[in-house]
Amino acid sequence: MFIQHKQLTFLSAPASRVVQIQSSPSAIQLAFSGHPPQPCRAYLLQLGSGGKALVIIAFYLLESHSSVFFVPEKGEVSLAAANDIYDEGIEFVESMGFILTESDFQRLSPAEKQIFWGKMPITHPPETTSTKPDGLLPVNNEEELQRLREQSLTSLGRYLASM
Question: N or C, fewer C-beta in 10 Å, the chain?
Answer without folding.
Answer: N
